[in-house]
Design a protein that fits this description.
single chain, 20% helix, globular
Length: 172
């Protein structure tokens, strides 16, 4: 097929109608939390303004990974990357286990470390899980992260766990 012939058969491509990059999803957050911008995230939500202090937040991001990767391998690589970013002894793993999120196995990790941007330690609940199989060559790896000051962990951890437990992909 020559170029002239292929150009004569153009159609309009509408995004996201003709292609949804990620499946729609829902999850529960506190009713007074609002969306905000966060680099590299599909969505970020945080608690209301608190002048001069860090605000607890939940982010969801997606990466496309090789179909052959197993969740345990991805979780190990994410942990290795975080360990490389932290000085010796700064990263503390509080808990790590396999749970079920959106009907599929998920890697759940509770960790704390000194934030490079802040002068204090943060606590994170990190959950890694795959989206339902779309038949594409790559798999979609979802990451849900809840972050708060380490000292506030007892106050926010239940909120973060509730967000992960409630996460659901909408039927296609």
């Amino acid at each position: 097929m020559d170029t002239d012939e292929s150009l004569s058969s153009l159609r309009q491509f509408a995004f996201p109608r003709d292609y949804q990059p990620v499946p729609p999803f829902t999850f529960d957050v506190p009713s007074d939390w609002a969306t905000c911008d966060a680099p590299g995230c599909l969505i970020a939500l945080r608690e209301p303004d608190k002048p001069g202090t860090f605000r607890a937040n939940i982010t969801v991001s997606v990466d496309r990974v090789e179909r052959t990767l197993e969740l345990s391998d991805v979780a190990a690589e994410v942990l290795n990357e975080l360990e490389r970013e932290q000085p010796d002894g700064e990263l503390r793993l509080e808990a790590e286990k396999v749970v079920v999120v959106a009907g599929s196995p998920a890697s759940l990790r509770v960790q704390s470390f000194k934030s490079p941007e802040l002068a204090y330690r943060v606590l994170q609940l990190q959950v890694l899980f795959f989206a339902p199989d779309s038949g594409c060559e790559a798999r979609q790896l979802f990451t849900l992260i809840g972050t708060c000051l380490e000292d506030d962990g007892d106050h926010y951890i239940d909120c973060f766990v509730a967000a992960a437990r409630s996460f659901a992909f909408a039927p296609s």
